[in-house]
Write a structure and sequence with these properties.
This protein has one domain (2-330): 3-Layer(aba) Sandwich (D-Maltodextrin-Binding Protein, domain 2), CATH 3.40.190. It is 50% helix and 18% strand. It is built from 13 helices and ten strands. The chain has helices spanning 2-20, 36-51, 69-77, 88-91, 110-126, 155-159, 170-178, 191-197, 207-212, 238-242, 246-280, 290-305, 315-330, and strands at 23-29, 56-61, 83-87, 133-148, 164-166, 184-186, 202-205, 221-223, 228-237, 284-286. Strands 1, 2, 3, 4, 7, 8, 9 and 10 form an eight-stranded mixed β-sheet that branches. Strands 5-6 form a two-stranded parallel sheet. The radius of gyration is 22 Å and the shape is globular.
């Protein structure tokens, strides 16, 4: 009898231990450790662990240690990772509509961005579920600007440059090709080394991003005209997400969502501070003339017409976003 009781107790203890095991969600990203992105994502992870009483843990692999975005997605597919934090361009293959925010020269102000995102963020996030992902958070990184080791003031000067576009970001590729540029496609993690070796001499990034990835140590010139709006999104494989209880899923969405809301405001502040830091570094920030701005916007409009097909944002979401922007500009 005592033996049976002992066995039963041991079995119950085993089941309790298994039940108590945390569901570990491994997330990889190219975002460097120590950046605001990593600090806020870690704060979100700590809140998730606390509120789920340890049932759900998030483990991050920053700085590209798990490979570029394509490699990370392959590792998610085989279960080595459960998710990733990507730029919109890096994860657009899983939801082309996320790239609707990053069409060339689409936005001209933060007010336009805020109005559009208030209406479309939830729709964009929901689009990932059609391809087996759950978007836990979406945040703006800010506006990307053309930055170079050489002076670029005209379209012809850009044509002569060795311009980087993110690997897989066919929208950026179309935009530069519309300007007569043959861009060089590379993973984000390779840009710093490529600037160093001269494989490329021109790229686009946010002001804060240029500092975070150390590009500011190589570039000398920036064109003060927003090329596109950069977004970041954290996605988790839906199969991994479904292993978590409904209550804990709600906690995940809530806490990571709040972290990404904080990142929106931090991003605006960091980009403002970064401008001053870049100027102090001796980087020249060139303000184009009204005619030059009109010329670049014309290029953006021309390239937008070429963005079609299954890899592109849906025509419906593009039209709806453009209509919302037009409404904001009338105010």
């Amino acid at each position: 009898m005592n033996l049976r009781k002992s066995c039963l107790s041991a079995l119950l203890a085993l089941f309790a231990a298994v039940a108590a095991q945390a569901e570990v969600i491994k997330i990889a990203t190219t975002a460097p450790d120590g950046t605001a992105w990593m600090k806020e994502m870690r704060a979100g992870a700590e809140a998730v662990k606390a509120r789920t009483e340890g049932r759900v843990e998030i483990k991050y692999y920053p700085g590209g240690v798990m490979g570029d975005s394509a490699t990370v997605q392959r590792k998610i597919k085989i279960g080595q990772l459960q998710g990733g934090a990507f730029t919109g361009g890096e994860i657009a293959n899983a939801n082309p509509d996320v790239q609707a925010y990053s069409l060339p020269f689409l936005f001209r102000s933060q007010a336009e961005v805020d109005a559009v995102r208030a209406k479309f963020d939830e729709r964009v996030k929901a689009g990932f579920e059609k391809n087996g992902f759950v978007a836990l958070g979406l945040s703006g990184g800010g506006f990307a600007y053309i930055m170079s080791t050489r002076e670029i003031k005209t379209r012809d000067e850009l044509k002569a440059a060795k311009v980087w576009v993110p690997q897989g970001d066919f929208i950026a590729e179309i935009a530069f090709k519309s300007a007569g540029v043959t861009p060089i496609s590379l993973p984000l993690a390779d840009v710093y080394t490529s600037l160093q070796t001269g494989l490329i001499d021109t790229a686009a990034n946010t002001f804060a991003g240029a500092i975070a990835f150390q590009w500011h140590t190589k570039i000398k010139h920036i064109v003060d005209l927003p090329v596109s709006y950069v977004v970041g999104v954290m996605v988790v494989d839906k199969k991994a997400f479904d292993k978590v209880s409904a209550a804990d899923q709600a906690v995940l969405r809530d806490e990571i969502g709040k972290a990404f809301v904080r990142l929106d405001q931090i991003g605006i502040e960091d980009n403002t501070k970064a401008v001053d830091a870049l100027k102090k570094q001796g980087i020249a920030i060139y303000e184009p003339s009204a005619d030059e701005i009109a010329n670049w916007q014309k290029i953006g409009a021309e390239s937008a017409k070429q963005i079609t097909g299954e890899k592109s944002p849906s025509p419906e979401i593009i039209s709806a976003i453009e209509a919302e922007i037009a409404t904001v500009r009338k105010k």
